[in-house]
């Protein structure tokens, strides 16, 4: 649509009114969307950096930018050092990391399954991860990396069950969504059971895996998620460029040189791993994966949008975390509350406008 | 399942259940259900983490036991059995009515988010209005359930008709997510509420006050009457609105009454035992497989087998991992989720 609305946009000065060749015409047609994509990425990055600064520096206790640079450089400033390094900065960084993971995973799944409802959180993948995580913490007493591994196991199991329900053509069917809802209900019962079994102190810790919270983030957690994000996100972005071809149907996609089954399995594994890694640390922050994909697709219509979805996810989580920390005075709400309040109405609105063929 | 093959011409019922009329004669089915129910009650009173001799238990039930400890244990078992019976019947009836009214095979109090709405209302009531008795819980639960039912129903009516089951489940899921966010927000700020609420939240018949049954009785009895008399209405609804009107049904009035019954039952059960998921799904589908799709029969049998299911689930939860117990809500969810998957696989047109 941008190509159509911007024929008069400044083009190369040497280009004549009518393009000479097909190649020129194509290049001209592609320039608009490409420029738009660059603008969107730029704006999102600026927004993200601004939000991170707001989150890290402007809280109940304000730290000036100069002080922050000195603290990160190694200086020791009473109170400010502690607030920044132990509370606000880790939360901001973690919000970016897990937001990007949830956003990219959601966007990739929605594109691959050709259904805006098919995000990992609605299909129950995040609940699979959180049920496994809370079992490993409360019942088995694990900490750290083993929890991530357990979460991975949980979400892989859920993914296997759900994808075995997919109808022909690999798009997400209503049946698949319903199976996801069923599994999510069963799994949240497991989480509740673990809450009851635990002591009250463990229970408050385990409440993270019910709603998602950044309240108790440590630098070790950040390091673990950073490594996984850095390994998995680039691969997912590289693979996701080929996902739109699947819209043509498996046969045509195969004819165009896409190895369809391998692509599906690869993307699914990456999505599951990202979701599990993020959920193991911060819990199932509701609807981030679900929200990011559609927003990203609106921002860059018809273009590969998984990278944008990752940025949107990061922006959403950082912003929601700031809101959740300061919207209600004297109360630190879990970030999942804010994203849940944002996401549930969007889901309801999408149900209203959803056209029938997608619902099959 | 075998009958579907031999009767291909019979029109598929809209509830998505197996086509075909009764496989089991109604008197036989009712008799069997009563026997199952009696066995469940017997098991619930006799079995538990503490093993007691059946003779001592019987003495205590009759009231002539000399041993105070046995008395106390048996009293608590009788209380939880009683609550299990009431809750099971209420939730199963509510499930039948909701599935019939919405013509949606997966409609069920927990899937539609009704339980979450009730739970949210109760938590908000505890935290902000200082509710501390069962009557207050019931009122709050009814308000929450009614609001959520209206919300989910209106959303489903706005969505395309052909995808109604999916829309309804997702609307329920969205409401559930919203309610859990808000519940989480209340609990995170208040450790005292968390401690009492986490036990209520899982759905359990143990440790509840059996006297609460009496407080809730008016709500449940009214709901049960409305639900049990809704059979003809539900049968007419299954034919479609126009045909129902042609048959002389006052569609809006009767539907309203039936829906009111379902809401009262769901709210009462949730206030009594917390959210117990999937019973309203498993039991009606089981019953339909036994006696066919006539709602009058389904209602009666569900009212008998629902309690049996909940009481048996409670017994299983007691015996699986002694000395600790698994709450009945969790047992039901673990049994129910696979059943929902099976039901979904058999729904047509998805």
- CATH topology heading of chain A: ABC transporter involved in vitamin B12 uptake, BtuC
Give the SSE string of chain B: HHHHHHHHHHHHHHH
The name of the CATH superfamily of chain A reads: ABC transporter involved in vitamin B12 uptake, BtuC
Order of helices and strands of chain A: HHHHHHHHHHHHHHHH
Poorly predicted residue ranges of chain B: 1-21
Overall helicity of chain B: over 70%
- What sort of overall outline of chain A do the alpha carbons produce when their principal axes are compared? globular
Radius of gyration of chain B equals 20 Å
**CATH class category label of chain B:** Mainly Alpha
Largest interface: A-B, 54 and 55 residues
Residue-averaged pLDDT of chain A: 80
Quickly name the level 1 CATH class of chain A: Mainly Alpha
How many discrete domains of chain A?
1
3D shape of chain B: globular
Biggest sheet features of chain B: none
How many helix segments of chain B?
Answer: 15
Beta-strand residue percentage of chain B = under 5%
Distance between the termini of chain B: 20 Å
Structural class of chain B: mainly alpha
| CATH structural fold name of chain B | ABC transporter involved in vitamin B12 uptake, BtuC
As residue ranges, the low-confidence spans of chain A are 1-16, 355-360
Summarize the entry for a quick read:
The complex is a heterodimer of chains A (360) and B (350). Chain A is an all-alpha fold and 360 residues long. Chain A is built from 16 helices and no strands.
Features:
heterodimer; A: 360 residues; mainly alpha; ABC transporter involved in vitamin B12 uptake, BtuC; 16 helices; disordered C terminus; B: 350 residues; 75% helix; globular; membrane (chain A)
Overview of the structural elements:
Chain A is an all-alpha fold and 360 residues long. Chain A has 16 helices and no strands. Chain A is globular and about 65 Å long. Chain B is mainly α. Chain B has a single domain, classed as ABC transporter involved in vitamin B12 uptake, BtuC. Chain B is 75% helix and 0% strand. Chain B is built from 15 helices and no strands. The longest helix of chain B is centred in the N-terminal third of the chain and has 35 residues. Chain B is globular, with a radius of gyration of 20 Å.
């Amino acid at each position: 649509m941008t190509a159509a609305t911007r024929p008069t946009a400044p083009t190369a000065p040497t280009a004549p009114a009518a393009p000479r060749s097909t190649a020129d015409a194509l290049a001209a047609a592609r320039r608009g969307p490409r420029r738009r994509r660059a603008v969107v990425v730029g704006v999102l990055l600026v927004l993200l950096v601004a939000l991170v600064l707001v989150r890290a520096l402007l809280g109940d206790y304000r730290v000036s930018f100069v002080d922050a640079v000195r603290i990160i450089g190694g200086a020791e400033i009473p109170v400010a050092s502690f607030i920044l390094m132990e509370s606000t900065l880790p939360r901001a960084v973690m919000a970016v990391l897990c937001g990007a993971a949830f956003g990219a995973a959601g966007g990739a799944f929605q594109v691959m399954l050709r259904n805006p409802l098919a995000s990992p959180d609605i299909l129950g993948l995040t609940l699979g991860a959180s049920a496994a995580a809370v079992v490993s913490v409360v019942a088995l007493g694990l900490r750290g990396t083993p929890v991530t591994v357990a979460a991975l196991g949980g979400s892989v199991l859920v993914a296997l069950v759900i994808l075995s329900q997919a109808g022909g053509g690999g798009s997400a069917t209503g049946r698949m969504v319903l199976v996801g809802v069923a599994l999510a209900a069963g799994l949240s019962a497991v989480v509740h059971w673990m809450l009851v079994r635990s002591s009250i102190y463990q229970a408050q810790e385990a409440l993270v895996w019910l709603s998602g919270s950044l309240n108790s983030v440590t630098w070790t957690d950040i390091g673990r998620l950073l490594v996984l994000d850095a390994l998995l996100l680039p691969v997912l972005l590289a693979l996701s460029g080929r996902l739109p071809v699947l819209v043509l149907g498996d046969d045509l996609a195969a004819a165009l040189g896409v190895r369809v089954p391998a692509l599906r399995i690869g993307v699914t594994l990456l999505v599951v791993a990202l979701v599990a890694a993020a959920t193991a640390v911060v819990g199932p922050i509701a609807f981030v994966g679900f929200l990011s994909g559609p927003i990203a697709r609106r921002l860059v219509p018809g273009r590969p949008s998984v990278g944008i979805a990752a940025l949107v996810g990061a922006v959403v989580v950082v912003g929601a975390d700031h809101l959740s920390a300061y919207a209600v005075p004297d109360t630190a709400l879990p970030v999942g509350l804010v994203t849940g309040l944002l996401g549930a109405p969007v889901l309801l609105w999408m149900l209203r406008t959803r056209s029938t063929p997608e619902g099959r | 399942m075998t009958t579907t093959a031999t009767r291909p011409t019979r029109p598929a019922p809209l509830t998505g259940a197996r086509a075909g009329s009764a496989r089991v004669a109604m008197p036989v089915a009712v008799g069997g259900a009563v026997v199952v129910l009696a066995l469940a009650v017997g098991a619930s009173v006799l079995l538990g983490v503490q093993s007691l001799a059946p003779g001592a238990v019987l003495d205590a039930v009759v009231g002539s036991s000399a041993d105070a400890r046995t008395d106390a244990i048996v009293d608590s078992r009788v209380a939880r059995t009683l609550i299990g019976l009431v809750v099971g019947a209420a939730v199963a009836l509510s499930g039948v009515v909701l599935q019939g009214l919405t013509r949606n095979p997966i409609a069920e109090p927990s899937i539609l988010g009704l339980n979450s709405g009730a739970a949210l209302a109760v938590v908000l009531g505890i935290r902000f209005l200082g509710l501390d008795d069962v009557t207050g819980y019931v009122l709050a639960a009814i308000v929450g359930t009614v609001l959520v039912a209206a919300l989910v129903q209106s959303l489903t009516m706005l969505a395309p008709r052909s995808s109604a089951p999916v829309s309804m489940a997702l609307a329920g899921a969205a409401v559930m997510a919203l309610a859990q966010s808000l519940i989480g927000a209340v609990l995170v700020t208040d450790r005292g509420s968390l401690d009492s609420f986490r036990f209520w939240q899982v759905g359990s018949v143990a440790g509840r006050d059996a006297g609460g049954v009496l407080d809730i009785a008016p709500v449940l009895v009214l709901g049960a009457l409305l639900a049990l008399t809704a059979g003809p209405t539900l049968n007419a609804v299954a034919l479609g609105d126009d045909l129902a009107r042609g048959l002389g049904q006052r569609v809006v009035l009767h539907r309203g009454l039936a829906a009111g019954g379902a809401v009262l039952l769901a709210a009462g059960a949730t206030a009594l035992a917390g959210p117990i998921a999937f019973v309203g799904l498993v039991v009606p589908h089981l019953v339909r497989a036994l006696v066919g799709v006539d709602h009058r029969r389904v209602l009666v049998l569900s009212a008998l087998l629902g309690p049996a299911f909940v009481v048996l689930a409670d017994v299983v939860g007691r015996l699986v991992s002694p000395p600790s117990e698994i709450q009945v809500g969790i047992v039901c969810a673990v049994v129910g989720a696979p059943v929902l998957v099976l039901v979904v696989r058999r729904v047509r047109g998805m």
